[in-house]
């Protein structure tokens, strides 16, 4: 793998840390600002919505500069947003800081996915994308637990200051290691927009929203769920997040490996297993050992869908994939926002801290149904081409279509 993938992984590490560390610090932030846990959950929802809207916006704004320069600009925006969060005097200001940082997220992973895929041979593209996303998953093993520990010991403001420093490291890594990769000649915004006319691109994005949304429905409220339901001490949340991160690392690497061989079967297996584990988590959350196992499995199964879904979007939007790739990252975070909001609703309705797990199971099951539909439509669309190649007369091809 090219050394430039290391630079992309460093940037992904910083972004992954700021995205996920807030979940382990929700109780501390809520207490400091005098808001409820569901209200503090808007820091997750606001970040996710910022990614969703920022992904296409920043990608379009970056069409006039090289991909390397745009990646550097995005890391600069990330640094500013996290410093604003660290210094926020009120909850609303912290929310603004989260949104500012989130504007860099979608475009960074979208453009970074395209860059990573172009650095390797065609049969290794999903693996290269997975390598970049390894930075995001490793953040959940190292960055998020340490950030949570620091936040609980020294204050959450220190955590976000450290996250901003990670952004500086990522910026330097990109400047030193990523080669100049200008946008291909002849590819304009209208070509990028044309990808959204492809129903397979839209279905892949819908699978992204629902599938990873299932993960966040449970994980957003993991701290109160584990302390109030499973009976873990507050300090144990750090190590539970390590388990989640280890699952993500393993799932990401497995998903990247098998997506280059059997993309759709990989999605069938991971989404169906994810729905089952999330449904069972409503029961296993009452046992410390089983809840720990469930958290690791949710991380693994959820992130096993990331490389195949990102590669499917790139494949279906071939020729002009940058905007579609970035919007698909926004779709991940639309799922995060939707599930965090729904999870907050069921908790606020008095259904308990395990209720978001049912929300996640339903979302994951819906993503599985879309995967089956997408494959069925693809087979149907390929049938006429196959019979043309076989020399079947036009009248018989028309009969096949009907």
Automatic annotation (TrEMBL):
Predominant location: membrane
InterPro entries according to UniProt: MFS (IPR011701), MFS_dom (IPR020846), MFS_Efflux_Transporters (IPR050189), MFS_trans_sf (IPR036259)
Domain Major facilitator superfamily (MFS) profile: 4-383
Pfam families recorded: MFS_1
Record localization: Cell membrane
Keywords: Cell membrane, Membrane, Transmembrane, Transmembrane helix
One cellular component term from this protein's GO annotations in UniProt: plasma membrane
Residues spanning the membrane: 42-61, 73-96, 102-121, 128-150, 156-178, 199-224, 236-254, 266-283, 289-309, 330-352, 358-377
Membrane disposition: Multi-pass membrane protein
Keyword Transmembrane helix: yes
Entry-linked CDD domains: MFS_NepI_like
GO molecular function: transmembrane transporter activity
Keyword Transmembrane part of the UniProt annotation: yes
Entries under PANTHER family matching the protein: CHLORAMPHENICOL EFFLUX PUMP RV0191 (PTHR43124:SF3), PURINE EFFLUX PUMP PBUE (PTHR43124)
Protein known as: MFS transporter
Organism of provenance: Streptomyces spinoverrucosus
Organism classification: Bacteria, Bacillati, Actinomycetota, Actinomycetes, Kitasatosporales
